[in-house]
Amino acid sequence: MTASAALEEHLMSPDTPIDTRPGYITFGRRVIHDDHAGLGVIPFTDVIVKSSNVGAIRIGMKLGPERLGEYVSRFGFGQTLAPDFRGESPGIVWNPARLDPSALASVSMGYQVGVTAIQMTSAASAVANGGVVVEPRVIHAFIRDGRRVEVPHRVLRRAVTTETAATLTGIMEQVVERGTARSAQISGYTVAGKTGTAHKLVNGRYSNADYNASFVGFLPSRHPAVTILVVIDSPHGPNGYYGGTVSAPVFKRIAEATLTYLGIGPSLNAPPPVLVARHDAEESLVAQPVRTPEVLTAALEPARNGLMPDLRGLSAREALRLLSRIGMSARLSGDGFVVEQSPVPGAELIRGDRCLLRLGRRPASSPGGGP
Length: 371
What we know:
- The chain is an alpha+beta fold.
- The protein has a domain at about 275-360: Trypsin Inhibitor V, Chain A (2-Layer Sandwich).
- About 30% of the residues lie in helices and about 25% in strands.
- The chain has helices at about 1-10, 45-50, 55-65, 65-75, 100-110, 115-130, 160-180, 245-260, 280-285, 295-300, 315-325; strands spanning about 15-20, 25, 30-35, 40-45, 130-135, 140-145, 145-150, 155-160, 190-200, 205-220, 225-235, 275, 330-335, 335-340, 355-360.
- Strands 12-13-15-14 form a four-stranded mixed β-sheet. Strands 9-10-11 form a three-stranded antiparallel β-sheet. Strands 1-4 form a two-stranded antiparallel ribbon.
- Helix 1 (about 1-10) packs across helix 3 (about 55-65) and helix 3 (about 55-65) crosses helix 5.
- The longest helix is centred in the last third of the chain and has 20 residues, at about 245-260.
- The protein is elongated and about 80 Å long.
């Protein structure tokens, strides 16, 4: 929210230098440190990429409590967002008029506020949606008189312009590419996100031993399909307690399974879809008929459970189309229809792996038992 407000109000650009020296900032007897000292003077972008507390506070101070509070509200914090969630809490957001410099510093870096998972996911999705906040919902569609009727999206408000959302998306991509969330990288996909590591509130005080580690991200970031939030309560393990080391790897595993389920193929440095072993296999890509979408959807179904689909009986073109949707490349030999495959149907699906397909003129039975 702090970054969005500064960009939207044209107070700063991604290249604006922010002085984080000497690695901490004081408010009376209160001292706030960066997790990684020695960042020095860094561009605005790196305040987010490197998750600098001091940098975020400097930006918040430039904004002031009223402007920062406006964007906290624009993105939906401090309010209920969805009638589908009857027990939803509005969270805790302070009146901007009550924010002294120390409190403003806290809000600027994500403290002294209480937010729900729905609010956090909705705010990240607003960036993915080009700056608009969409009402969260449970029901995607319902059946009436035998007809499927989708529940329409309801836009609540515009939080920021499309230009600001695009700029922030680029910054959030760098968080994953070179910043605190490199463990969230997924080969072949651009991911935009932000880590969070916060002292846990225990009996009204921030604990020095327990933390909430989080990561929220959306992907593919240039054509978003899904937003995922991972929050881990009080992690105590070999990977520490930071959102980038604890929550980002969990995000990656969930995201990979989700991409497979949705059938979204790689778009970034994607492997070539096919390595042709023989010239006549290349000819088969043009000559084979295409089956109905229902047949191809049925063939893809096992992948949604993490299993290798049965490609036998499909043409080379059909098999390649399905493999691309589940993030696999292929090597073909022969021509005609798929008669053998490796991995075999039902084997554990490994994204990015290569599938070996042997083609023959006489097709095997089609997936689902058809001819």
